[in-house]
Amino acid sequence: MKQNSIIRIVVKLLMPFIILFALYVQFHGDLGPGGGFQAGVIMAGAVVIYSLVFGLATAEALISLPVVRSLIPIGVLIYAGVGLFSLIKGRNYLDYSALHAEAATGQHIGIFVVELGVFITVFASMTAIFYAFAEQQKQNEEDSK
Amino acid sequence: MTGNQVLLQLNYWLIIMIMMMGFYVVLAHSNMIKKLIGLGIFQTSVYFLYVVPGKIIGGTAPIIASGYQVYSNPLPHVLILTAIVVGVATLALGLALVTRINEAYGTIEENDLYRPDEWRQ
Amino acid sequence: MASITPHFPILCVVIPLFGALLCATIRNSRATWLLAVCSALCSFLCAVFLLMHANDRVVSYAIGGWQSPIGIEYRIDSFNAYVLCLISGIGCLSVLYAPSAISEVSSFNRPWFFSVMLLCMTGLMGMAATGDAFNLFVFMEIASLSSYVLIALGKQREALVAAYRYLIVGTMGATFYVIGIGFLYVSTGTLNIADLTVRIAPIKTTAPVLTGISFLIVGLSIKAAIFPLHAWLPNAYRFAPIPVSAFLSGTATKVALYILLRFIFSVLGVQFFLGTFGLYEVIVTFSLGAILFGSIVAIFQKNLRRMLAYSSIAQVGYITLGIALANENSLTGSLIYIVGHGLTKVGLFFVAGSLLARLGSDHIADLAGAGRRMPWTVGSFIFLSLNMLGIPGTIGFLGKWYIALAAAERGSWWLAVIIIMTSLLALIYMGRFIESAYFSSCSDEKIKSQANSIPWNMGLSLAILTGLCIWLGIDTAILTDKARAAALLLLGANL
């Protein structure tokens, strides 16, 4: 698909907007539709379309498979870590009001951080699934040659 | 069961119809991917089952604003977000299993998978 | 920093979760095994502490600081803590046993294997600990998805099909559970199980509540492999790796039975269950069907693991028979049987795994003469089978004795006789293997020349399990007191 100049140029132009939209959806999750899961999927969609047009090797040079696989538990660790932080501060697990002196700000910070963790894990999981299917396709093509 | 009664509870009739359609697809089709699609339809009807009673008549979106007293229930939406994510994860795992089964057996029709005596080992 | 003891309800669920995540981040195969054993052991210690602590009171823990009934609450009473100890103990032993028995998992993938095993344990512990109905569904799906992955790791390609079948059937079961909770939520407005008990009392006989309860019971029966809905179990246990079969046979079905007991007895109440809902005849029929079907089909199996799987179906039949009789003795018997079957079946799978690892086969015909070459291993198999049969002095006998006593109290003498007769069926299928192991000799020279001693971690897990069976069989008071306390809690006043 790299030869088709229309697709190549349009995707190149659209990529930053897709990523920006993913971040917009991420940060507006508590006021409107959105949040970590939706934003992670949109961001993974950006990686997918980049890989479809420019090739798997280029996408893997951008975000390599080991990096993606190690991001999956890191997002959940951020989420569980917030709960652990509340435990250390003496409150119950996942009690966001332990994160700041005022309870309301603490809730805000807590939701922000856990949504970030969800975003990282969902993005990494979707990208890893896509890479796994794409590598298998490459393997099948090599086997049949 | 007058027509008026059916119309008043149209939501629930549709929920049950979609639920049974999905259930039928899971049972009747032998193609593994079609079974997964049927499972998805079945789970979608469950999402309706939660969200439809959540809307309170005359209620507005559940964000506190002056001038509104009645709000729709936000809890079913949160529950269904969780259920949707679980459904996506199940679908992804099912598709990965179907891919591996295709590699191992060469087919994704359940009826063609095995000879009966091979299965009983 | 304040004291840690009020946080034990959440710690026993979160420690395996952290263990799973750290296993997925660290890529060393040996280090992740040690990490997995340590986190499972810590979770087991938390569960034991809760068991000692929750004797006559309820430990309630509000997640996120939001009080129930608005927030999610973890509610540990004596019944809960009993199940938590079982799950974490068996999880710890299975992870300890695992590395020598998963030759089909490459060492690159071992960290992921332990991570998913710990995730499964997190899901099961969360199912047992939580007091919120939808939180229970989330943990149920965590445990189920992890178990589909674990089963698909088996050596033969049939493992993939078994995992796919289990995925379809298990997801239907979980979705039925969600439909049931949906109807109950629409009728009462609350998801907290304790609050549900209070709010459901005046409306128990209305149509939405009855529909919801029916969906819920069917969904949980699928997960617990109760007789007509058991079809996923034989293939899943036959083709999964041995540590996975052992772990799931000891815990997954038991947790589903725990939730069934919780909803039937604590939420609905015994009178409603036996009287208006009228399930007594249905459950007794299905229990007897399970016992007879499981035992008779197990007699004809040529593969050791498949025989143990059908035997599991039969043993679940005994447990549901105790549930149907629904008085103090029968519930005590069922709860003792839950722990007893958990320990013995896990041990039997461990022995099958040791024989598979050393002799290379799990067909009964190929294992001929194994008793002479691996005397301790097959000896523990004999001891564990005697436990399962119910020889006096073992935990199996305790469970069956109480259930038979309850049947006699009720006046159904024929049930007590059937319980004793069907134990003889278990003697037949266990006896087939023992006869092959001791009184035949193997003709295959290659199998004859394999090494005879099993790896130290397999031996240690097997020894701990056998020791526990001996201890709990002799000092019957420990198990009986805990089980009786839990049974009284279930039968007594609502939560």
Helix and strand topology:
The complex is a heterotrimer of chains A (about 140), B (about 120) and C (about 500).
Chain A: H1 5-27, H2 36-54, H3 56-62, H4 65-88, H5 103-144
Helix pairs in contact in A: 1-2, 2-3, 2-5, 4-5
Chain B: H1 3-8, H2 10-28, H3 32-51, H4 75-105, H5 116-119
Helix pairs in contact in B: 2-3, 3-4
Chain C: H1 8-25, H2 29-53, E1 59-62, E2 73-76, H3 78-97, H4 110-129, H5 133-151, H6 158-188, H7 193-200, H8 207-224, H9 233-239, H10 242-268, H11 270-274, H12 280-299, H13 304-325, H14 328-359, H15 370-373, H16 375-389, H17 395-410, H18 413-439, H19 445-448, H20 456-474, H21 476-491
Antiparallel strand pairs in C: 1-2
Helix pairs in contact in C: 1-2, 1-4, 2-3, 2-4, 3-4, 3-10, 3-14, 3-20, 3-21, 4-5, 4-10, 5-6, 5-10, 6-8, 6-9, 7-10, 8-10, 9-10, 9-13, 10-13, 10-14, 12-13, 12-18, 13-14, 13-17, 13-18, 14-16, 14-17, 14-20, 14-21, 16-18, 16-20, 17-18, 20-21
Main attributes?
heterotrimer; B: mainly alpha; elongated; C: 495 residues; globular
Molecular structure report:
- The complex is a heterotrimer of chains A (145), B (121) and C (495).
- In chain A, helix 2 packs across helix 3 (56-62).
- Chain A has one domain (5-144).
- Chain A has helices at residues 5-27, 36-54, 56-62, 65-88, 103-144.
- Chain A is mainly α and 145 residues long.
- Chain B has one domain (3-56, 66-119): Helix Hairpins, CATH 1.10.287.
- Chain B has five helices and no strands.
- In chain B, helix 2 packs antiparallel against helix 3 (32-51) and helix 3 runs antiparallel to helix 4 (75-105).
- The longest helix of chain B is centred in the C-terminal third of the chain and has 31 residues, at 75-105.
- Chain B is elongated and about 65 Å long.
- The N and C termini of chain B lie far apart (53 Å).
- Chain C is an all-alpha fold and 495 residues long.
- Chain C has two domains: 1-276, no CATH class; 279-495, no CATH class.
- In chain C, 75% of the residues lie in helices and 2% in strands.
- Chain C has helices at residues 8-25, 29-53, 78-97, 110-129, 133-151, 158-188, 193-200, 207-224, 233-239, 242-268, 270-274, 280-299, 304-325, 328-359, 370-373, 375-389, 395-410, 413-439, 445-448, 456-474, 476-491; strands at 59-62, 73-76.
- A two-stranded antiparallel ribbon of chain C has the order 1-2.
- The longest helix of chain C has 32 residues, at 328-359.
- Chain C is globular, with a radius of gyration of 22 Å.
- At the B-C interface, helix 2, helix 3 and helix 4 of B face helix 5 and helix 6 of C.
